Amino acid sequence: MRIILFLFTLFAFSLPASASSIEDRSVALTAQLEGNNNYHAHLARELASIAETEKWQHDVNTARAFINMAEKHAAMAGGAK
């Protein structure tokens, strides 16, 4: 029983650590694209917003997928202009 409780506790505290990096990446991406209004920049910001929403709904894997897509589009946008 103690092992199960330990594993549950370990899992419960591991999710917020990985989730916060998604939020940090989203903030950095938004700052990087400030002033850039082309298609890829707009799409990157929207994908980052979706990633944060998914993180708050505790779907970290989906949030990671969206933030990865956002970062790819941010790279295509070319940063701030």
How would you characterize the overall build of this protein?
The model has no long low-confidence stretch (mean pLDDT 83). With 81 residues, the chain is mainly alpha-helical. It has helices at 2-32, 39-56, 60-77. The protein contains three helices and no strands. Helix 1 runs antiparallel to helix 2, helix 1 (2-32) packs parallel to helix 3 (60-77) and helix 2 (39-56) packs antiparallel against helix 3 (60-77).
Order of helices and strands: HHH
Main beta-sheet annotation = none
How confident is the prediction overall: mean pLDDT?
83
Specify the number of helices.
3
Could you give the distance between the termini? 57 Å
Rg from Cα: 16 Å
Instruction: Give the overall silhouette.
Output: elongated
Helix content: over 70%
Strand content: under 5%
Q: What is the multimeric organization of the chains shown?
A: single chain
Structural class call reads mainly alpha
Number of strands: 0
Sequence stretches where pLDDT stays below 50 over 5 or more residues: none
